[in-house]
Amino acid sequence: MATENTRAAAGAPVLDVEGLQTHFFTRGGVVKAVDGLDLKVGAGEILGLVGESGSGKSITGFSIIGLIDEPGRIVGGKINFMGENLVGASEKRLQQLRGKDIAMIFQDPMMTLNPVLRVDTQMIEAIQAHEKVSTQAARARARDALATVGIPAPDERLTTYPHQLSGGMRQRVAIAIALLNRPKLIIADEPTTALDVTIQAQILYEVQKLCRETGTALIWITHDLAVVSGLADRISVMYAGRVVESGSTANVIQRPGHPYTEGLIHSIPTRETHGSLLAQIPGMTPSLLNLPKGCSFRPRCPRATDACLEVPPVVEVSPGQFSRCWHATVAEPAL
């Protein structure tokens, strides 16, 4: 993990998102996929963005990197990257940033890889698009990147096409491409889901090392609290397009303040729960077309009262730990 000294030396955050609103204008109505989101990540810091499917995690990542297509668009807020607001930035400017200063690792590697180009062609182009280096030097960097993510015989893999690789191998190639130019910010959208645990552990180690040594900021998007508990410096928990809890990993995991966070943590298998039914959060995530009045989590919440019919405020439940809840309270250590 990034050290306290690394963060202190970083100064202003690499990314500072304020009140981000990304809506999709459909025939059925307006889908508020991201609705007033705030988050920050500093140099060398790893932020875990956690939540169930449909909470808006991936759309947050796409919004930051400027990959929202119609009928979706950013309707409010700021995305301050290295002091520059990217909301409303031209496509030319975003192309200059993508792959060099900001990289995204997609859940589906075929969103990154071109099926009709060899791996070496794609990796060399990714380097030469932003730097004036020889093909030989670019190829050497590409080979080293493949070795970093645990691909055996990297020289041979460079000459293959994506369809000749397994799904897990393609994902490792996509991760290697994101690491090529040592970006200032990496957005990783559940990139290790298709990988076995050994390779996953290796990649988690490598991205931690990258952040620590180069000052790269990382947003790790996942539904798996177990992964981010050992990876991230801080955690932001999303529900229905909003961050409902944020704070240091230790505080959020051990002493959650929001009932949704508490429910997620209690649903994780442990040695103590072996052989017994896991706790689960009742109900389903709400439709973003028809969100409940007030607190979006109200229909599923064990603490819900009439006060929850109004939008809850963000309160500080412990130093540096914030929760969006009328009844926020620091729980006893959950793990």
From TrEMBL:
Belongs to the ABC transporter superfamily. It comes from the Bacteria. It is a peripheral membrane protein. This is ABC transporter ATP-binding protein. InterPro entries: AAA+_ATPase (IPR003593), ABC_Ni/Peptide_Import (IPR050388), ABC_transporter-like_ATP-bd (IPR003439), ABC_transporter-like_CS (IPR017871), Oligopep_ABC_C (IPR013563), P-loop_NTPase (IPR027417). Pfam families: ABC_tran, oligo_HPY. Transmembrane segments: none annotated. Keywords: ATP-binding, Cell membrane, Membrane, Nucleotide-binding, Transport. One of its GO terms (cellular component) is plasma membrane. It comes from Pigmentiphaga aceris. It is found in: Cell inner membrane. GO terms for molecular function: ATP binding; ATP hydrolysis activity. GO terms for biological process: peptide transport; transmembrane transport. Residues 15-265 form the ABC transporter domain. Gene3D superfamilies: P-loop containing nucleotide triphosphate hydrolases (3.40.50.300). Its main location: membrane.
